[in-house]
Amino acid sequence: MSQSGNLPEGVPAPNRSLGYGIIRWAQRYIVQPDGDHSGEPWRFTPEQIRFILWMFSIDDQGKWLYSDACLRRAKGWGKTPLLAALCIIEFIGPCRFSHFDENGMPVAKTVPLPLVQIAATSIDQCGQTLDMLRGMLAESPAEAEYGLDIGKHLIQFNDGRPGKIVPVTASSRGLEGGRPTFVIMDETHHWVDSNQGTYVFETLDRNVHKPGNPGSRWVQTTNAYNPLENSVAQRIHEALLSGSQRYLYDCIEAQADIDLSDDEAVAQGLRDAYGDSWWADIEGLVETVQSPLTPPGVAYRFYLNNIQENADGWMSKAAWEACLDEKDPVRPGEQIAVGFDGSIRGDSTGLVGARLRDGKLFLLGLWERPEHVKSDDDWEVDVLSVEAAVRRAFETYKVEWMYCDPPYWQDAIGRWAIEYGDDIVYEYWTNKPTRMVNATERMHSAVMVGDLKHDGDPKITQHVLNCVTREVPQGLLVCKNTPRSKRKIDLAVCSILAYEARADAIADGRLNRRRGRVVGF
Question: InterPro entries from the entry (predicted)?
């Protein structure tokens, strides 16, 4: 077990932390929300207690030792319940320094006008914490004694007193300019520029630390982040590594670079990462880590809590090579599905086919900037050549379904739908994460269990093996190893679309017969 954060050893002295009284208060007023002990008094684990004691530690003037806090732990360690408990504590509990008594012990008070915010990039992301909060308060001693109105999206006082617990997102009114007394930020490894997570963090950080807002602060939780994404979690960790003492950073992780094929090494790593989380099923987690459906990057980051820069390859070379089939080429007239991913300059444009009867992938066309052309500004995709390749595919094979990523090519896709059938040619927006996550997982799973084949085309292979994974709330997406990387992945995207088109064509009954017109997506 390795504490790679800055959490001090041991616990603070009783006269240097409000946490001792806070823990006693929480275990009196909060209830266990679910499980076999539902409705019983809430109990923190020893690791959670140690975090709270240091988070609420003070100096001899009663000021916080740490202005903010970050908890980086494995998936399922208990981060969300801890955040929910902290929200309740900051809303109605004794969590601010008042004075030292005659024995030199700190006396705490409640926040006069508590505004607790549950922050996320979308309202759905707040749901798990809100559900946990309602479960901890419903029929608890706190509900009656403090007169709480526990709503679905808002917790407040039922007598109209000011104060509330409320979710906020990038689209929330008043995000800029608010004056929260406490903010929780869950899963900040998901908070990146593309989903406005960075904006949400920067705004809330300014709000919390406004002049005239003493004692207010934020706490965030995260899994080990993907260092390719420049997430908020990464920014906080890098600030710690650069020597910042502003944040309390609590991180227990397994030994680095564990051999994921070694059962005992994985089990020990999981025991280290999960610490005293007694509910963690180590045996089941070993199976999850070693499953062929779990990419190494996910295993290291989410279960062993390790940051692994080079562990995020989407497809293992061995698994991909095991799907090679050179004996049964795709012949003219066979039923196929097609995936198209187009660009104008910079990225490649590709066209990949997937045979319906066995999912065999093969290249129909690739257009990328030649090496002798040094600048993207000096080269554009030959649109007429792409149009000719699409026409050739329809003339050579029996194309049953075609998925096309629309950016830059919507006019062309519209023409293809008119010419070849709008029950065959469909737009497929790869920037819609839920659909793309499912399609990506479908192809990855097919490779892992041997349900997919390919003809060994070197360009498809290169693009597939170039892919790394990016974790989003919905699951895993493929991406380049860096945004400006020259290692192209466009044919991998085409392959995912082609394999997904094959699945939908088969589901529509087109493997053995043609149906009439269907409704597009």
Answer: P-loop_NTPase (IPR027417)
